[in-house]
Write a structure and sequence with these properties.
It is built from 8 helices and no strands. The protein has 150 residues and is mainly alpha-helical. The radius of gyration is 19 Å and the shape is globular.
């Protein structure tokens, strides 16, 4: 191995570590925005409640939060769904997310509707209260599923 290949390997290793640390920061922010403490015990418990595969360990989630590793795609999807963030944005951050041009979804809610008012009120709540509202809505949705499964 020559000197240049060693330098390239070192820079790739540093870049990989930086990527993991940046993921950890995004994960912590998403947890806090959703009203959860960014602690391994909280992440382990809440993730395993939503994941249908083999339960993850405390050590695994600690590595995610410390920036030592990044979860596999299936686990990333579960995290994103749970924390209500875009999986691509959670994994790669805003810069990569903004480089992809996707159509903005439109809601079929008129500005005078009750739904619009509820949405505006919801957006003004602190993260912890948003979590409570989401939990309540999820409970009602599970008790009264619609024809399309939502």
């Amino acid at each position: 191995m020559n000197r240049y290949s060693t330098i390239i390997e070192q820079s790739l290793h540093i870049g990989g570590m930086n990527e993991k640390i940046m993921f950890a920061e995004r994960l912590k922010s998403a947890l806090e925005a959703a009203g959860y403490e960014a602690r391994p015990s909280v992440l382990e418990r809440e993730f395993n409640l939503r994941y249908w595969g083999k339960p993850i360990t405390f050590q695994a989630v600690r590595r995610w939060l410390r920036g030592d590793s990044i979860p596999s795609q299936d686990k990333l999807q579960v995290l994103a769904r749970w924390l209500l963030v875009d999986p691509h944005q959670l994994r790669y951050g805003d810069s990569a997310y903004n480089s992809v041009s996707e159509p903005t979804p439109t809601w079929e809610v008129s500005s005078s509707s009750d739904e619009w008012q509820v949405l505006l009120l919801y957006r003004g709540l602190p993260a912890a209260q948003k979590k409570v509202v989401r939990d309540i809505i999820e409970t009602f949705a599970k008790a009264h599923p619609t024809k399309d499964g939502c």
